[in-house]
Amino acid sequence: MDNAIYNYALRMGDTCLILSHRLAERCSNGPFLEEDIAMTNISLDLLGGADLFLSLAAEVEGEGRSADDLAYRRNERQYYNHLLAERPNKNFAHVMMRQFLHDALLHPLYTGLKLSKNEHLAGIAEKGVKESAYHIRHSSMWIVRLGKGTDDSKEKLQDALDDLWTYTGEMFEYNDEEATLAKDGVIPSFEELKTTWLKTVKEVFNEAGLEVPKDKWMATGGRQGVHSEFLGHMIAEMQYLPRAYPDAKW
């Protein structure tokens, strides 16, 4: 059980950490001041979630490592985040679409995780569900606003959806460990999460006038440590100071 909890917490922590860093790259580049602050705050919420999940992973591992060690002292193949989280920022529509696709999963996931038989995961979810409720309202509002905006904003949003949809299938992959955790009431069912996620995204896309891409090949590999070239560049930047000054206190 401990190994399964470790792996699950690591995957969750990695996804939150990488998506947080992507949003942080947008700091000072929002379309207006209030939105710039909102995106930065969402990035910080995700970073807080990453810290909680990675702290749990470190505790369960029991080898004296901390959340910081897991975040800053692993190489690319030792990260297990969803590929969606590492996709680079292109334009505001692309950033909002990536965020919405993630938010539509994270909110019901936290909602289900509040009922976890593991008190540590339930505690993380208790905090995360409040933040994720705001996140999904924020990103879905922008999807509708951009979809109903100009021809240009709708075209960019549809292009973002067409580009990112292929990375959504991986979010609902699960292995035997996770199937057992779900059966034992430790984590939510992946099948139920996918049903809820699809209902949410289709409702929002319908309101925004977007066309849901037809089923096609889905990218995979992030959960096995196989990533795009973009993650390596991000990690090199993210880990520079901790690796250059390993004994520094911040």
> CATH top level?
Mainly Alpha
Provide the helix percentage: 55-70%
The backbone outline, from C-alpha atoms, is: globular
Known CATH architecture:
Up-down Bundle
Largest sheet: none
Structural class, please? mainly alpha
Give the overall pLDDT as a whole number. 95
Our measurement of the CA-to-CA distance between the termini, rounded to an integer number of angstroms, reads: 34 Å
Going by CATH, the homologous superfamily would be: Ferritin, core subunit, four-helix bundle
Could you walk me through the main structural features you see in this protein, from its secondary elements to its overall organization?
It is globular, with a radius of gyration of 18 Å. The two termini are 34 Å apart. The chain is an all-alpha fold. It is 68% helix and 0% strand.
Topology:
Blueprint lengths: L1 H23 L8 H29 L5 H6 L10 H4 L5 H22 L5 H29 L3 H14 L11 H8 L6 H19 L20 H10 L1 H5 L6
Helix pairs in contact: 1-2, 2-6, 5-6, 5-7, 5-9, 6-9
For this entry, give a set of tags.
single chain; 250 residues; mainly alpha; Ferritin; 11 helices; 0% strand; globular
